[in-house]
Write a structure and sequence with these properties.
By secondary structure, this protein is of the alpha/beta class. The strands form four sheets. Strands 12-13-15-16-17-18-19-20 form an eight-stranded mixed beta barrel, surrounded by four helices. The longest helix has 31 residues. α11 packs parallel to α12. It contains 17 helices and 21 strands.
């Protein structure tokens, strides 16, 4: 009779342990429920399970767990049944069943307990596999943290519970991560991504969710009360990088856009607004962290509008070319000009700063640059046919073009299309902000020179390794950024840091057989100073504003127009 009761307890255990097993947590809960249901009949005192699993892609730190799933209030005996199993990945599972205090299992009962233990192992193992499969759907393989799908799933649960309002979202990017790869190699770059991800994941703990979107872009949900802690933690991040004797401490810098959720927000809202705040941070070199404001949304809408309108506006000829004269300082004669794009929409000029940065960011600037270049070549051909003597026209090309291996061929092809001499053209490139573009720029400059086309570097003195540009790039013209001339005026006493810098730059440019042109010249004092430093050319409002084509044609036919200026 007693044996029948034991068998009934075993069956009860089997019944309960198999209910709703779809993940490892359910399986563990079922062991407790089954033990409690069968304890009296099988004289159960204690059930324990331990798991030691090695590190893997989905479990980078491995698994080390121990749990008591049942413990009788009466206590337990030490003489029970314990089984150890080896998992496929080399892990070890140990399950122990002990009888209640004052009881002892016979051989037959121990055999049935062993079957129960085996069942616990099989069911929990299957549930763990199912959990790992589910985890793989929501885990970033490289870093082991949450991926986008997992992040949205977590946020969706917060929305369903009306708890999202308690959180802030942060869109995060590692600043200058490409230089990490250059300094330490891509393998070490991946190591840094993992170290950073795991450090942030540990920081967040149970107060939110940290996820990798891809590359070095991440997103974070965290309780609003921990935003200050987040910023302090981010500012102190540093990791040991490199291998062997080359190991060194690398201080990580982050760029963040932060948005604090409100009652009506969805996950789409907080993702959108945190990314908008991040884009504002990316566009402001003075700030690494930007909190979302409605103004940022207005700017985002404006940028979207520009992007949407641009293709049709280009096809409709709304973009026109203006020309700003360059004056030779030795005799105040017109010696060149810069082609500048103006957008005429509904009879009004759209300020360049309203659309150029937008097109630069999204890449449409490349299409606009070629549109302007074609217009310039057509104008030069027209001037020649009118009997005018054209001056050299500088045309701006974004540094985005340097990734186009056919850039030189396309430019030379357009020059040939209009049948003009390459000497009338100067290709103006903005000074680089990173070393990665240098090789491409050097190859391009040499190709232009081989075909009689001049090149120039715009905004000299504001970008990457300016002196290396002078030394290693065989350009024809260096354009000094107007920021150098802000403090040069009649009241500066004749000596200033700006004067010393400009004087020495111009001297180096001249000794390298290049020409120096100063932009943004607005006063007679600035022009006189530049003339004294033997700067070749100047452009700015002192001489002329950017002019429509018909107005500039008048300057071409009036040789002495600038004689009394400057």
């Amino acid at each position: 009779m007693e044996n029948c009761a034991f068998c009934g307890g075993v069956l009860k255990f089997f019944e309960k342990i198999n209910e709703n097993v779809d993940n490892i947590d359910n399986a563990m809960d079922n062991i407790t429920v089954a033990a409690e249901a069968a304890a009296e009949k099988i004289k159960l005192g204690k059930v324990t399970l331990s798991l030691d699993a090695p590190p893997s892609e989905l479990e980078p730190e491995g698994v080390h767990k121990y749990g008591e799933f049942y413990l009788s209030s009466k206590g337990f005996e030490e003489d029970g049944v314990e089984k150890q199993f080896t998992t496929k990945e080399g892990g070890v599972v140990c399950i122990s069943f002990l009888p209640v205090k004052g009881e002892k299992w016979n051989i037959s009962e121990k055999s049935m307990i062993a079957v129960l233990i085996k069942s616990c192992y099989i069911i929990s193992g299957r549930a763990r596999v199912m959990s790992l499969m589910e985890k793989s759907l929501y885990t970033d393989r490289m870093t082991g943290i949450c991926n986008t799908e997992g992040f949205m799933r977590y946020g969706g649960m917060l929305v369903a519970r009306h708890q999202l309002v308690n959180y802030a979202a942060a869109f995060i990017n590692i600043k200058n991560f490409k230089y990490v790869n250059q300094l330490f190699g891509s393998r070490q770059g991946d190591v840094l991504l993992r170290k950073f991800s795991q450090a942030m994941d540990r920081f967040v703990k149970d107060d939110g969710k940290f996820a990798r979107l891809g590359g070095d872009n991440f997103v974070l949900l965290i309780k609003k009360g921990r935003i200050t802690d987040l910023r302090a933690f981010a500012d102190a991040l540093s990791f040991e990088m490199g291998e062997g004797d080359m190991r060194q401490l690398y201080n990580l810098r982050l760029r963040m856009g932060i948005y604090e959720a409100v009652e009506t927000d969805t996950m789409g809202d907080i993702m959108n607004k945190s990314s908008i705040a991040f884009n504002a941070a990316r566009g402001d070199e003075r700030k690494d962290v930007v909190f979302f404001s409605p103004l940022h949304l207005e700017e985002a809408i404006h940028k979207k509008k520009i992007s949407t309108l641009f293709p049709t506006a280009l096809d409709n000829g709304e973009f026109v070319v203006y020309y700003q004269p360059k004056v030779r300082l030795s005799d105040n004669k017109l010696c060149g000009c810069e082609a500048l794009c103006r957008w005429i929409r509904d009879g009004k000029i759209v300020p360049p700063m309203d659309f150029i940065p937008v097109l630069e960011t999204e890449g449409s600037i490349c299409r606009l640059d070629f549109y302007v270049f074609e217009a310039v070549c057509a104008d030069i051909k027209r001037w020649l046919e009118m009997g005018l003597d054209p001056v050299r026209v500088s045309v701006n090309f974004s540094k985005r073009h340097l990734h186009n291996q056919r850039l030189a061929d396309q430019i030379l092809g357009i020059i040939r299309k209009y049948g003009i001499d390459g000497s009338y053209i100067e290709v103006e490139l903005t000074e680089m902000t990173g070393a990665e573009d240098f090789t491409a720029m050097s190859v391009f400059v040499d190709r232009m020179k081989e075909n009689g086309v001049a090149t120039s570097i715009d905004d000299f003195g504001t970008g990457y390794s300016s002196l290396n540009l002078l030394k290693d790039l065989d350009v024809d013209v260096i354009k000094l950024d107007k920021s150098f001339f802000t403090n040069i005026n009649d009241a500066d006493g004749g000596i200033s840091t700006d004067r010393i810098v400009v004087k020495n730059i111009v001297n180096m440019v001249n000794e390298l057989n290049m020409e120096a042109v100063s932009e943004g010249v607005e006063t007679h004092a600035q022009a006189e100073f530049l003339r004294d430093t033997h700067c070749s050319m100047a452009q700015g409002f002192l001489f002329d504003r950017p002019l429509p084509k018909d107005e500039f044609e008048k300057r071409l036919s009036d040789e002495g127009f600038y004689a009394d200026k400057g």
